[in-house]
Amino acid sequence: MASEEKNQSNIINSELNLNYNKYIFADKPINRFKTKPKVEDISTKLDELRNEIEKIENCELKKNASKIVFSDGNNRSKIMIVGEGPGQKEDQEGKPFVGDAGMLLNKMLKSINIERKNVYITNVVNYRPPNNRKPEPVEITKYSNFLRKHISIIDPKILILMGSTAMESLFGSNIKITKERGSWKDIIVNNKNYLCMITFHPAYLLRQPENKKYSWRDLKEIRKKIDQLNISL
Prior knowledge:
Layout: H1 2-20, H2 42-54, H3 60-64, E1 72-73, E2 79-83, H4 88-93, H5 100-110, E3 120-123, H6 137-154, E4 158-162, H7 164-171, H8 177-180, E5 184-189, E6 192-199, H9 202-207, H10 212-228
Parallel strand pairs: 2-3, 2-4, 4-6
Antiparallel strand pairs: 1-3, 5-6
């Protein structure tokens, strides 16, 4: 009888050992609330923003323009350029900076070894102002809401504001571009901080070529910061 009980005990112990080997034990608690991270699609968000702007109502700019001018370039770029608004050529082609100012912008970028296709470009207002006039304060304010969304979607490491309109859209109208250009600034957009450089608009430089020397200084500072931040272009 004692021999039989011993055999049964050995069988039970053997089964327990076999079952024990089926499990892997860790000294960390199991995370039972794992969720798959959501990957935000930049292109989809940009399409949604574009559609939102196209549905805008009571806008004199939209009434006088032939089409929306939304953006150009690489939407994954860490360099974002913001200009003023479309001119006649931009209104025809539906892309920003394709006229004479655009040609100068391309040369400016190339002077610091940047190809236009490797940056992201947009404007404060997305429809051509009548007779290429400067956007009015109420228009700048209205479209700055879209611009802020635009910046958040692209999420650049460096934001370049070209011209007083771009500056006013994010910093207000109580400052002068002649005093503010050329130095790095921090700006908060939708609760996130962005590194920003204010510089002259290429269209202004075409009218005032003697000020190109200041823009050249700004460009060199931009190139230096790109290298410091190890931004790939």
